[in-house]
Amino acid sequence: MPADTSGLWRIRPAGVEDSPEIARVLRASMSAAMPYLPVLHTPEEDLGFVSGHLIPNMVVDVAERQESGRIIGFSAVSGEWVEQLYLLPGAQRLGIGTAFLARAMARSDRLRLWTFQRNAAARRFYEARGFVAIEETDGSRNEEREPDVLYEWRRDRGS
User: Which candidate, 130, 87, 125, places its Cα nearest to that of 109?
Assistant: First the structure.
């Protein structure tokens, strides 16, 4: 699994006490990476989603800065589904996203995830790590009504 060799960050399992910071990262990351998306939830609803759904039902990991303990990214995985993977803009390109995926890949022979078709940076990131687009939709099945794409990674592809 890729690990931080700079000593700037570390990944650890999330606890319910991390919910406010995870909700903050979710909102900030989505706003920065996908400003075209409608804002559908209040910060309080984000917090309720994290503490009431993500933490109790999924494997949630957080990346935190070593010196401050401040959460700068998180991932949430349910079975073979990468449900969430978000990093603050300043935490990108440090190997954190790759480390999150490596943790999930170590636990599964197949992973799937959805991202928006317009999210070119996410698409490049996943494709560079062996994910293959297997379906595109018009967005009618997601709450943002934004065209999306389903990606899949399989160990037997050699990726």
Answer: 130
- Residue 110: how many CA atoms within 13 Å on its side-chain side? 5
Report the alpha-carbon distance of residue 150 to residue 83 in Å, rounded: 12
Report the alpha-carbon angle 67-71-76, nearest 5.
140
Q: Distance (Å, rounded) from C-alpha 26 to C-alpha 86?
A: 6
Task: Find tokens 């940076």 and name the residue.
Answer: 121
- Once rounded to an integer, what is the mean pLDDT over residues 51-64? 97
pTM for this predicted structure: 0.92
Instruction: Specify whether the backbone of 55 is left (phi greater than 0), alpha (psi in -120 to 50) or beta.
Output: alpha
Pick the closest to residue 144 from 39, 9, 33 (CA basis). 39
Cα(22)–Cα(11) distance, integer angstroms? 13
All residues at 6 or more sequence positions from 12 whose CB lies less than 8 Å from its CB, including other chains: 61, 62, 64
Beta partners for 95?
none
Q: In the predicted model, what is the mean pLDDT of the chain? A: 93
